[in-house]
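As a representative case, we now present a protein record of this kind.
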Amino acid sequence: MATFTNTGSLTNSQGATLSVVAGDRFYNPFGASLLNDGLLDVVSGATLSNRGSLTNAAGASLSIAGGAVSNVGPLHNYGSLINQSGGTLKNFNLLVNDASGTLTNQGILSNYYGLFINSGVLNNEAGGTLMNQGGTFANSGTLNNGGVLTNSAGATLNNGAYGTLNNSGTLNNAGHLNNSGTLNNDNSGLFNNYSGAILSGSGSVLGDVLNSGLIQGGELWGNSLHGTMTFASGTLSNSGSVYNVSLSSQALMIDVGTASGTLIGNGGAEIVYGAASAETVSSGGTVTAAVGGSITGDTVLSGGQIIISGGTVTDLTLNQGALVDFANVNYVAGETVTVNGGQLEVFDSNGNVLASVGLYGGTYSGASYTVADDGAGHALVSVAICYLEGTQILTPTGEVTVETLKAGDTVVTRFGGLQKIRWIGRQSFSGESLKGDWKNVPVHIRAGALGDNVPLRDLYVSPGHSMLVDGTLLLAKNLVNGITITQGWTPEQVEYYQLDLGAHDCVLAEGAWSETFADAGGLREEFHNAADFTARYPNVRAPDTIALCAPRPEQGEALAKGLHPILARVGHPNAGQLRGQVDRVTGSFKVQGWAQDLSNPDFPVTLEVLHEGVVLGEVLACDYWPDLQKAGIGRGYHAFTFVSPIRLTQAMHAGLTVRRQVDREVLGVSGSLTETQAA
């Protein structure tokens, strides 16, 4: 066996060929430099050992044609590096595939406790094996895997924010795979996240994933967690643990393990056979409690749906427009639904309980419920809404009062241009019947409260009616601040009108964009003339889920973001006596409690959350908690949930402080801050 040793600087010029033939060894020792600007060919039976510097220049080609390359020094590829079938490329130190480089592997490529950086294109083709064994693989380019890619225990694979990992072969993770970019596992690809392995990051995942390890969504910066991991399509089969992920588009999670903090968006779905907690189901999303499954502390927003099909559900929070499908209860006309002692119960016509579910925070005295057929013969419960008589609505010929409109008239809409009214829903209440009925007492929006000259004149709407502000729908009951937007005036008679255009949109009411009717479940039954619609359109069935023309947050950071510009127009009123408390820490990241300024009881309080004197962030106490309303604390819209940027261990609870931002007055603490998993 002949050995050629390069002790200085060797350049294989453009157009030249340097071949290491069978039986020979090319040795590039420490301190030596090999620059390939032509063709460097390592044939079968040959060996190239690099301990110095090996650079494959742009336009050059390094071909491992059945031979072996062992890299202990830095190897930089700016051109084409091909490890053919039967070839071996082992990296023990630094292997860099530059942004202009293409690395094609058809043989065995191993990263042994080294650093492998891909900024270009890495193709692991069919028959190829790419193994990261104890090292670190960082991808900010494109990795196409059609063979087998294994990230071994103790190894780290980082798919950066600009990285794309396309897998049509087999991707086995037994170490730590951090995905901040895009992981695309197509229909023919297999992705295994093994027991003991970690898949983390705030990137997106497409395609099927088998998880028996840990999936932790969000980006960890030190102890700080930012964002979520989004599963946009495919099926996530979980027998391990999943935390803080988003399911959107056509993504499905089948959960036989544990899941917490899942955000289920439009088109997303989860079927729970194991245990799930502290999840949020938004419009168009669905979560199912299947046989053997348990769901604790979930929140269902407007248009979201929870299906109870043999599993158990406790501490459920239902927002207006939420849907609860009792899949094991046959719907029969005459069934009713009530809330009693923190239990939502469905009764037959004889008063017998057919099904029940536990609600978080006690009774929901401010809500209204209806039960209807879900389209499959099961009982579907929906949480129920308009414009006060005299409201001016813009038409092509000018403004007219809402009570003079009729079906067939044309109105100006925000998204659909000129549209004809299909039907007009009506509700009528006496002033006496509305006393204390916050879900029906009109909300008064003063001129200019939502923006410059928006609305043009004072506007009165029902609490469940939404206004479009800066592209976001905000429910009138959430807008109340006690100064420019109030609730409390009750005339002798209240007449509400709502326009049904066939699809959700917004019309100009007193110069402000304001929603039309969006149907789902039993929402239409809230109108006192609902039978008129059925007579006119006997074949029209309400959709299973509500379809809105814009996002409509009802709690948390998204709601606070929508309210901030409206509150800023008011300015901060003089601070009065503060009452409230910090109730609990949930899931190691959420701090929950309530706060109210007694001098400004409807104006949301801005709070700061600190640990050991360091401000972690701020939160607006604007969420609805039914227990607060039941206790006579305003209308109940004084709760907050602060999502911490750092993990809050039990030992850290004593160092937590929540204070009012304007004067730094500190909230009290309810007993000890016990860690819980319920949201």
